[in-house]
Amino acid sequence: MAPDDFYASPFGVAYSAYMERPWLSRLISRIVWGGDPRPYYESMVAIGEVPDGGVIVDCPCGAGAAFRALDDAAPFRYLAYDRSPAMLRRARRRAGKRRLAAVELGQADVTQLPLGSEVADLFLSYWGLHCFEDPEAALREASRVLKPGGRLVGSTFLKGDGSRRQRALVRDGRGDFGRVGTEAEVTAWIDAAEFRLERTERSGPMFFFQATAA
Questions:
Q1: Of the four listed, 1, 5, 34, 199, which is most buried by Cβ atoms within 10 Å?
Q2: DSSP result, 127-162
Q3: Where are the domains of the chain?
């Protein structure tokens, strides 16, 4: 199923709705996935740590769940990309409703972003790596657009070495899953993209990471 078809489906509508509500996201994540997404919401403090005049890249931005960390006077550029038109429509509505002038939305593939090299201070990679056919290329592109010392903050689903439920639900090519890695594989991909991994946390199949560009 094409990205827009999948995220325009009832699943995409429900997913967008509960990700915008941390309490509901925690409930659904515990019941369905056996994990706790709180580190995802907590990691958004990185947005407020970007210096005035800085640049944030959010890809894939989904329906704009990370916009919760912005206000209408954000002193930086916030470039939000997704390959799904359905998700971009939801993100545009959310940015408009909150009057977030810093947000600039565009459709793009995470492996070919319309940006120069070394332009971003922060790259948000939330719930995207497990959707891609080539997650290593996505991480290399994040490394390319980040300034030296810039931060990568993200989350993804893992496969392979968890509970029976995790092995049943998290499979390559199922739903929106593309090529899903184990924890060892994901950390190896981050390292190979020339990031210095600084922090990881895991809850069930959910993996949260922070790294710095070399």
A1: 34
A2: S-GGG-S-HHHHHHHHHHHEEEEEEEEEEEE--SSS
A3: 3-213
Q: Is pLDDT of 131 > 60? A: yes
- Tell me if the domain spanning 3-213 has CATH number 3.30.830.10: no
Instruction: Say how many C-beta atoms besides its own lie within 10 A of residue 22's C-beta.
Output: 16
Evaluate if pTM is beyond 0.85.
yes
201: its two tokens: 């946390």
| Residue that is written with structure tokens 């895991």 in the block | 202
pLDDT in tens, 63-80: 999 999 999 999 999 999
Per-residue pLDDT of 140-162, as tens digits, reads 999 999 999 999 999 999 986 66
Nearest to 206 by CA among 66, 47, 30: 30
- Do residues 86 and 105 lie in contact, with contact meaning Cβ atoms separated by under 8 Å? no
In the block, residue with structure tokens 């002193």: 75
In order of 142, 162, 207, the CA distances from 203 in angstroms are: 24, 10, 7
Rounded CA-CA distance 29/177 in Å is: 16
- For residue 67, the 8-state DSSP code is G
Give pLDDT tens digits for 97-119: 999 999 999 999 999 999 999 99
* Contacts of the segment 104-108: beta carbons below 8 A, 24+ positions apart: 104/77, 104/78, 104/79, 104/80, 105/61, 105/80, 105/81, 106/79, 106/80, 106/81, 107/81, 107/82, 107/83, 108/59, 108/81, 108/82, 108/83
